[in-house]
């Protein structure tokens, strides 16, 4: 799933919301930063909606640079943890921080009727930063304590890409975070290399 954000484009194809958060720190698209500037609060708000943490149409008037810093801190801790798992290392400080955030209560949810009669999910109260962080931290704990899911963690093999994703492909042979993005870049690069050799 891809969501346009002005000149930015978020991808929600990592397989878990915690991994999608880690992807916001990658250089393309530029994510919200732990040193907030410009529209970082707006970017975070759009990511929260695009990721499904906050239902579409929910007012996000409380999102500010403090939220951005807290989400960026959690993003960095989750990134350290999942990459440490892939590499067979430990990241004790990051684990301690994720566990502390996961101890918070997630937001309450409700089902309400739309004008057309269907039920939609809403939050019980105004979105609160700590509660939303708790959802991401709990997703991280669920991922890392599930041996099957943990064994599917991969880092993209694309040049200049550090995205982490769950490999759910048949045979567990997926090499790129996205066949359409990094996979296509690799195919184009291979074609150019072959063409250059043929011209030589």
TrEMBL record:
Residues 152-194 form the Zinc finger CGNR domain. SUPFAM superfamilies: Jann2411-like. It holds the Pfam family ABATE. Signal peptide: none annotated. It comes from the Bacteria. This is ABATE domain-containing protein.
């Amino acid at each position: 799933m891809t969501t346009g954000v002005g000149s930015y484009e978020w991808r929600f194809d990592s397989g878990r919301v915690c991994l999608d958060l880690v992807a916001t720190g990658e250089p393309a698209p530029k994510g919200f930063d732990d040193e907030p500037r410009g529209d970082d609060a707006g970017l975070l708000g759009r990511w929260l909606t695009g990721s499904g943490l906050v239902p579409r149409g929910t007012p996000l008037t409380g999102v500010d640079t403090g939220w951005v810093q807290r989400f960026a801190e959690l993003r960095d801790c989750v990134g350290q943890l999942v990459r440490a798992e892939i590499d067979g290392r430990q990241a004790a400080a990051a684990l301690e921080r994720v566990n502390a955030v996961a101890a918070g209560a997630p937001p309450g949810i409700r089902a309400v009727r739309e004008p057309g009669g269907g039920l939609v999910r809403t939050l019980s109260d105004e979105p609160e930063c700590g509660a939303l962080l708790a959802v991401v931290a709990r997703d991280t704990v669920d991922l890392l304590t599930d041996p099957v899911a943990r064994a599917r963690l991969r880092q993209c093999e694309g040049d200049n890409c550090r995205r982490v994703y769950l490999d759910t492909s048949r045979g567990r042979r997926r090499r790129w975070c996205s066949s359409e993005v990094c996979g296509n870049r690799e195919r184009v690069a291979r074609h150019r290399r072959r063409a250059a050799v043929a011209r030589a």
